[in-house]
Each structure stands twice: as C-alpha cells, then as structure tokens.
Amino acid sequence: MIGLVIVSHSKMLAEGVKELALQMGQNKVKIEAAGGIDDDENPIGTDPMKIEEAIRGAYSEDGVLVLMDIGSAIMSAEIALEFLEDDIRNKVVLCEAPLVEGAIAAAAQAMSGSNLKEVINEAKNSLQAKNVLLQDEENQEIIPDEKNTELETATRNLQIIVPNKLGLHARPAAKLIEIVNTFEAHALVAVDDKKPVSASSISLVGTLGAKQGEILNFTLSGKDTDKLEKALLDFQASNFGDEDKEIIDSSKTVEKVKSESEGIQGIAASSGIAIAKAIWFKKDLPVIEKEHINNVEHEIILLQEAIKRVSNDLDSIQQKIANKLKDNEAQILDFHKLLLKDQDLYESVVNMIREKFVKASFAWSCQVKKLEKQYLAMSNEYLRERALDVVEIGNKVLLELLGEPKSKIVLKEECIIVTDELGPAETMDLDLNLLKGIVTRAGGETSHSAILARSLGIPAIVGLGDQIDKIPNKETLAIDGVSGEIWTKNHSNIIDDLRKRKKIDDEMRESSQAKAKAPACTKDGKTFQILANVSGAKEAKIAFENGAEGVGLFRTEFLFMNRDEMPSEEEQYQAYKEVCMSMKGYSVCIRTLDVGGDKPIPYLDIPEENNPFLGLRGIRYCLQNTELFKTQLRAICRLSANYNVRIMYPMVGVIEEVISANMLLREVQQDLLKEGIDFSPNMSVGVMMEVPSSIFFIPQLANELDFLSIGTNDLTQYLLALDRDNSSVAKYHSPFHPAVLEAIREILMRSKKAGLEVSMCGELAGNIKATNLLLALGLEKFSMNGPAIPAVKERIREINFSGHKLLKDKLSPIRTLNELKSAIGQS
Ligand code: PEP
Ligand code: MG
Fold first, then answer.
1. How many angstroms is it from 292 CA to the middle of ligand 2?
2. 636: closest CA among 574, 708, 688, 566?
3. What is the predicted pLDDT for the residue at 23?
4. For the whole model, what pTM was predicted?
C-alpha cells in the first residue's frame, strides 16, 4: 500500500493533517508527519533528515507520496531524497497537490490499494471537490476515471437510501470508494436526480454531501457488477459502517478528554505501554524484637553513629538542593535536623539502653513512638502534622541501626510499581510475570534501574518528582514508556486508546521477534554483530530469545548489591556460568566490578565522597582493593577454560590502570597454573571507553588490550558534565550532542588505526534513531538491552550500506547541535 509523508513548516500542522488523513485512510495507510524543526526557540521550518526519517517510516515497495506546504519545504524534501538509496528514492514522488486536500484524497485512494499513479492523480484532483461545491451546478462535470473510459454498455441501476445519521461524511465516503475499487466494475453515483460522479474518486464522492434519507443512484457496469451490487447493499445494511450512537459519544469523548487535566509527565525510561493496578511500595520497617544485651556502651556508640550518618545525609541533601528547596521543604529539613540533635530524645534512648539492657534499635523505636504520640496529641494542627516527620526521621535512624534495609518487594498480582526509587537489585528480584510497569520519583534515562527495566522489557517512567504523589494506590494506571506520560483511571478514554495501541504494539513486537534470530544484514549484504547488555541470567535468557549474538556487556555489580557481604569466588563463578550457558556458545564479555557513583555497595565501605561520580569508582576501587579484584578475576579465568568469555575493565582514565589490572590478571593466572586449575591464556581483554581522557591514549591501549567498548552513558556524563542520574538536568544529557558524536567518531577512527576491535555498549547503541548515524560513523558491533535487539536488527536490514556515503560526508565534522539536528532530524 502507498505510504504518505506530510511535510510542513509547522509541526502541529503536519500532525493535524496526518490525523485527518489517517481517518480517511481508516488507519490502514502508513502516514508520517515531518513538521517543524527541533529548535525550541524557533520551531518553524523544515528539516531534510526529519523528512528522510518520515519517508523511511512510510516506505513500502508500493511507494511513497510526499506532500509539502510551501517554499523551503520543497527544497528540504528534495534534499531528503538525496539521502535515500536508489531503490527507495525511485519509489518516492514529491507531489504538487495542495497539502490538506491532497493528503485526504491520497489517503482515501491509497487505502483502496491503488497504485502510486492513481494516488497521485487523486491528490492532484483534490481541489475539484471544492471547485464543484463552490460553482453552479451547470458547471459541474463528470471527471471520468480510467475505468470509466472503458464503460461497458450493459449497465445496472441501484438505489440506496443513506442510512446513517451523519450521512455520506468523510469516513463512509472513503469506505465507499474502497468497496468500488475492490471489484472489476465501474460505478457512477448521484444524489437523487443530480448529475452523477465517479464513485471511485474521493474528491468527487466527497462533493455529494448526501444526507440521511437521501437516495444514492448508482449506475454499475463491468465484470463484477453483481458482486459490487451486493457489497453496496451490505454497506448500506451496515449503516455505512457508522454506529450512530458511537459517533455521537465519540464527539463527546473528545470534549471530555480536552476538559480533563492532562496526564502526569515523567521521563520515559523504558518503552512500551502498561495498564495495571498501581501498587505503591514504601519500604516497610522490620519488626523490632526486644533483645537483651550486655555491652551497653557498644549500643550507645551504634546509636551515635547511626544518628551521625543520617545527619550527614541530610546535610548533603541540603547542600545539593538548597537552591531548589521551597520554603516549607527547607523548614521540614530543618525540623528533621533538630530532632536528630534533640538531647531529650537522645537521653531518653540512652537511659533506656542503660536501665533495661536493650538494643539501641529497640530503645530508639520505643522513644520515637512515644514522641510521635505526644505530637499527635497537640492542639496546634501544624505541630500535629509534625508527627509524620518524627516517624520519618525515626525510621531513617532505625534503618541505619539495623544495617541496609532488607525489605523485599513481594508482588501478589499484576501491577505497576510506584515508588520513590527502585534499585537495580530490587528490580531484579521482582516477579517478572506480575510486574507490568515501573514508576519512580527519582532517576534519569540512563540510571541503572532504567537500564535494567529496558533489558527486562518492562515499561518504565522515572524522575517524576512530586508529581508522583498524584498517583493513587491500588487504582488502574496506564503508562506510556515512549512519551513518559501517565494516566489515572479518570482518563478512561485515553486508557482505552492505549489498550488498543498496546495490542498493536504487541503484535508488531511479536512479528519482529519472529525474525530476531536472523542476522542483521544490510540490503547490500553487510552484516553487523548485535550483542546484549545483561546483568544476570534472567536478562541473558530474554536477550537470547530476542536474537542476541553474545553478551557485549555483563554488568557484574548487581551480583554484589543488596546483600551484606561480597559474593565468594564460587558464587561468582556459578553466576557468570549461568549467563554463559544462556548464550549457548556465543561470547560473553564480563565487566569487572564497576562499583561507586550510582552503584553504591554499602558493605564495601567506600568512604563518603562529595562527588561519588568523580570518586573511587570502577577500576580505581578495584586497584585499591586487590583481594576483591583478584577474587573476581579468578572466577572469570576459571570460566575461560570451558566458556567463550572476555574480560573488560570499567572507568579507565589512565593507561597505568590497565597495566596494573593486567599485572593482577597475570598473577591470578600464575596462581591458577600453580594450583593446576584450568583457564584459557588467550582470553581477550578490553576496556570501556567512557572516561573522555581514554580517547587520547588508544594507541597505548592497543599494546595492552584486544578490544574497546564505547560506554556512551558515562562518556556523555563526563564530556558534558551532566549527572546521568539527576532528573533536573536529564533533558541536556544527550548522546546526540555533537561533542559526544565527535568523540565516538574519534574512538572509531583511532581504534581502527590502532588495529583494536571496537563496539558500543552504551544506551545509544540500542536507540533505533541512532542506527543510521552509527553505521555512517563506522560502528560495526552493537551491544544493547535484549528487547531492543529485534528493532535494531530490522532497522539495519532496511539500510543500503553503500548508499551511506552521503550521510557520512554530511556528518563530517559535526560542529553545532543545529547542524546535527538538520543532519539526522532529531534532538
Ligand atoms: C556506559 O557508561 O555507557 C555503560 C555502558 O556502563 P554503565 O551504564 O554500566 O555505567
Ligand atoms: Mg559506565
């Protein structure tokens, strides 16, 4: 079926025309809008790369018709054609028809399966309808279509009474044309005794304006006259496809949706639609048992330390967000700090420990409850409300006294989890059969729980801030992981629409998954390797089913999280082995512990840091904690005896780190040799390219290593000085920034020169909007979350690799964001 592209200087106009044309094409025609430019300050304009994207989106073997508004829209569309491979370009036509009328006519014609020529004719004739309506009846003429020129002499008349309330309006008119064009027959139609028009032309049928109860006079001829007659009678019997009640209701619906408040907006973190009951998860406190102790002084020290830690936390929160705090929030924080300093409270707890020989946790929770009751009994409302703060700060200290909170989320039914923050380890522990979606107050697109949600194929929206409090517990919630919007049950119409969209999405996913295991091979035969990012066997299995050809990044830190002590060598060996087994012989690249930054592991006792992202992270920590590092290296080396594993160091910023890490690796291998334990001496070793400095010593890296993997998440964070976890700067954290793309280009060029294999495992690799671009920049090996694989493979299959030179040249060099936007048509 012919696809359509609507090009306008205004994004809204393009989208609006698309909406109208989709209606006319009964949602069967692929229609893409390419409107405006991605420049918030000056959004009016046209963008060749956006148009190119749209053409690719609407493309099928039958061809694409592009309709444009004025001036530079035409030029941009012409440039867009240059980006296309010859075989695609030959099937794309830029059409001079008027934008709105042309689009409507073309969509209706395309829906009936007409060829490109017929659709073009219909679009070009689309102004006829207006002409006819605005002229005298005498000036009307029948515009014969090709079929009419061959009218046979044997004709049959058929009269049909317009049955539906709204008459022959746009939708039934389009349906009528579809019916007529299905058969080898010709039809003229007239309302009552007016002049007949061709019944296979939307522009003419649209002029009839037949109302309910009026008679349509058909003159039918041709081979399939009988069939057409029957189909027309069926169409009448179906009330012209209208449910009169539904039409009236649906117009009300539009009103209703408009008048309701909009959905809640968060940061889209993992695509897909989820509709399920919202379940709020707040970390519950464990029950505190009364336990007797002997060492009173030890408990008092524990208490002092716990209070100190919470107090430090509050200080650092206050420092970080002082300028963003509203007055009342600042007051509450002050109140919390006062409570921590409160001598009465402190002494009452210490006295209880001393007098009753109980644990600090028990004494603290008793005294906090007492204080809560006192506040609840206050007559002043403001002070009564402070009881909640007493409980909140009380719980914070209690959790410190009890060590890491070990509360596990147990799901009992299908639901969308709503919570302040969901750690990666917690996410992994959830029952994936019941978990339909994730919504969190904190986080950004590349925070680790977001990455994990993508790997597990669970729709997620993060970074909601206070908006999250609008979500009621235990009520139906719908989330759209692409737009980042959330709707509560009040928006029942939108939820119904989303349900329909979800069904279509599911079907599309199933069909692309069916092809997932085939290689990612461009039209002209170049194959790209598509690997997966995983953090455990659960994800590895999902990735394998989605067509992963190995693991390009195994994030081992999740194995170390949410527990009290480091996993033993054997435990690590087993966990890594499980992932290798899921990959059925494909290679698995195991990244050594990337602790720190956004991946804290409390029992490792990393000293408190002001800037953890710039602190003791990744390889830096491992080189200062060699026992821990060597244990992990041993587990990986042992695995290399029987499995296809590789090893990768994270966060390398100076060459010495690689030299030291490799020395430790050799020590471990020597030890294994002495102990008679098998390992492969040829295991490949590589590093993540994520600290910008590493770009400048690639030749030296080539002397020490076998491969590199570009980590765009951290590379973006460090190049642009933007915390990847901070939702207030999330909109600036873009791997499409020209500086990041130039860095990628440099890495690809330098590693090629140095003879080093290079892949990409940052989130950019799994973004289909970037596939074209990455191919043009020279990337050949991609690693991404499992569920993203089928779509990226499909994207690669649509590309003609040799035709990429144009895009490559256009991208060299990328100097400004606007240049890039116009080159690739996105922000
Ligand atoms: C990266 O930084 O791009 C990366 C893949 O590693 P992580 O997201 O685990 O920091
Ligand atoms: Mg990283």
1. 46
2. 574
3. 86
4. 0.55
